[in-house]
Amino acid sequence: MLYIRTDLGLIENFFILFATMELFHFFNKEFKYYYLVNDIVLSAAFAVLGLYTNDSFLLFFVLFMLGIQILQNKAHRLNYNNGIALVLAANIQLILSSLSTYITSFIIFFRVKCWNVHALEEFQNTFVPLSLLINVILLFILVSIVSVLDYQIMQVRHNIIRYHLGKRVFISLFTLLLTLMIILVVSDIQEVTAVIQMGIVLAFTVVTVSTYWQTIVFIQSYTMRKEASEANERIKEMDDYLTSSQQQYEDLRKFKHDFQNILLSLGQVVNDQSSDEIKRYYHDLMNQQSNFKKLQKNNLVELRAIKSKPLQSLLTQKYFIAKAKGIKINFEFNDSDYEIKKNDLSIIRIIGILIDNAIEYVQELDERKFTCVFLKSSGTIEITVANQLKETININQIFKSGYSTKDNHQGYGLANIKNITDNSKNLFMDAKIVNEYLMMTLIVLQNEEV
Fold this sequence. Notes:
Blueprint: H1 6-28, H2 33-53, H3 57-72, H4 80-112, H5 124-148, H6 150-162, H7 166-189, H8 194-272, H9 276-287, H10 289-296, H11 299-302, H12 309-324, E1 328-333, H13 344-362, E2 369-377, E3 380-388, H14 413-422, E4 427-434, E5 437-445
Parallel strand pairs: 1-2
Antiparallel strand pairs: 2-3, 3-5, 4-5
């Protein structure tokens, strides 16, 4: 166990707490000036506490912050998303701090050729600053890695929220933090040698990384199972609905045919009668035929051109969702047969995202409608979702993770599309603005060799 001067220990404690808070903000993508002042004050207060509680001060700090979050929540419940970010930041910073301490110890050991831990106390003025410097370097490396994996991390966080896995993940991470804290505190009390303590921490670090990885794998596999289950349920429901709708349409079409024949046969009889009331009633019925013609122009009927039942079901579902919100979807086709040969699920995901985005966007417009166009050419199907724009957008930024024109929206949808198309050989996305309309086009190559 190494005894460090009070002033240097205070600086070290402050850095650990402050770095934890900055990591927390980094994970949540929340950086505000007043946060910085708040972080400095809290870090300074608990840094002083750390002089009397050894390594456990970080645990007290985390519990305090979790308590503050619960009190700030109107329902007085923990926001597991923020809780996970805080505990994860504390776990990472504690491990990085321990690693930087041991790396610094070995550097000084090799420098002075002395393997006595108490000899480090003579080099405290060098030991603490060097340890903090190494910690900063490790932090920068970590931040760089996280930035590269930003999309995958956002996907994991999104799935945690979507499938209500926050409590499980939080308990798992908090248990890891508590376990590591107990190891460090017991090691200090029992005055375990630095070499043994380092071995324990390194082993625990491997276990922690493995646990994080297993947690991510669990979330991904759970998400895939849930998405597959939900997709099957939607397909079954919409398949039943389409079968029923088509049957109803056929019945109505037959009724229209019979009804028209009846009217024609009665026409001469009615005209021969002297009653003006009968004539007026007959001509009113004849005028109602225009309403039946609308059946042939119904968007849902036109969807029969799409031979992929899952995609047809999705479009039918989105049609009624939009209709319930007072939004009209105009479907346009240049062919009567659209067969999707491959990538059915990817195409459904992309079209679903594009239509959802259009529905959300046009809700705020005076003209609450948009168009979905299917164009078929030799070996290619182009599916375009076009909606009017109310403001200028950066067409070069829309596929980046986090970009959104909507308030309080994470903006993952188009980034998801980019990820899907980047991993497919026959799917491509094109976005352009024409006459103040945003046109998002999915290009599907149908050639078998693609």
